Amino acid sequence: MPRPKSPDAPLRSTILLIDDNRELCLALQEYCALEGMDMHLAHSGEEGLPLVLSGRFDLVVLDVRMPGMSGMDMLRKIRARTMVPVLMLTAMGADMDRIQGLELGADDYVAKPCSPRELVARIRAILRRSGLSQDASPGMLSFGELALWPDKHMATFNSQPLHLTGVEFSVLRILLQHAGRPVSRETLYQEALGRPATPFDRALDVHLSNIRRKMGQFDEGWSPIKALRGQGYQLVVR
């Protein structure tokens, strides 16, 4: 779990960047410092994994293609132990890397080369939707067998806990706030991922697939999250 913050502590996020490109790491670290973020560096999966599991960091930025332990192998190990938010750095045009990373539980991705400004914007969007950079909304939301507590960042389905990433939690919260009504893809992209939808971006589809899988298997292809052609997605009950 990300480290808890004291109520009196300043909202200065602590980020871990794991990338074997040392020059890039130093440049991003310097930019993030100017943006009010403490960025720590690791240059291999072997070096970075113990740091991730220490619970000291609010978010991990992880390069997919590294020598030794790959970013994908590391992501599997991270998700077996913690739901700390993870932002992947992928090669431009590496669609399979992005899809695989999202399926393994990454919150989002940025294609390299990327501008420091874009990276910081994505980090802030994930932290905001993970409840780590602002006060969470209190109270329980429920619909059918689904219950969600925004203040605790907890969700259950059929009384069983759902272990969700920050973005998955945000997607489900938005659908729950509009339960019984369709929510457009554009709305889910903007509010859950913090960016507009683009024609070939499958990030939302993968997050929805992960949520459905975590909710369990259902008969006759039924799902509590229904896709509505031309309208978006809607929470439904039997």
Provide an overview of this structure.
The relative contact order is 0.11. With about 240 residues, the protein is of the alpha/beta class. β10 and β11 form a beta hairpin. The radius of gyration is 18 Å and the shape is globular. The strands form three sheets. A five-stranded parallel sheet has the order 2-1-3-4-5, sandwiched between helices. Strands 6-7-8-9 form a four-stranded antiparallel sheet, with helices on one face. It has a two-stranded antiparallel ribbon with strand order 10-11. The chain folds into two domains: about 15-130, 3-Layer(aba) Sandwich (Rossmann fold); about 140-235, Orthogonal Bundle (Arc Repressor Mutant, subunit A), CATH 1.10.10. Residues about 5-10 and about 130-135 have low confidence and may be disordered. The longest helix has 14 residues, at about 115-130. It is built from eight helices and eleven strands. The two termini are about 35 Å apart. It has helices at about 20-35, 45-55, 70-80, 95-105, 115-130, 165-175, 185-195, 205-215; strands at about 15-20, 40, 60-65, 85-90, 110, 140-145, 145-150, 155, 160, 225-230, 230-235.
Number of DSSP strand runs:
11
SSE order, as H and E? EHEHEHEHEHEEEEHHHEE
The overall number of domains is: 2
**Strand line-up in the sheet with most strands:** 2-1-3-4-5
| CATH fold descriptor of the largest domain | Rossmann fold
Indicate the radius of gyration in whole angstroms. 18 Å
Structure class: alpha/beta
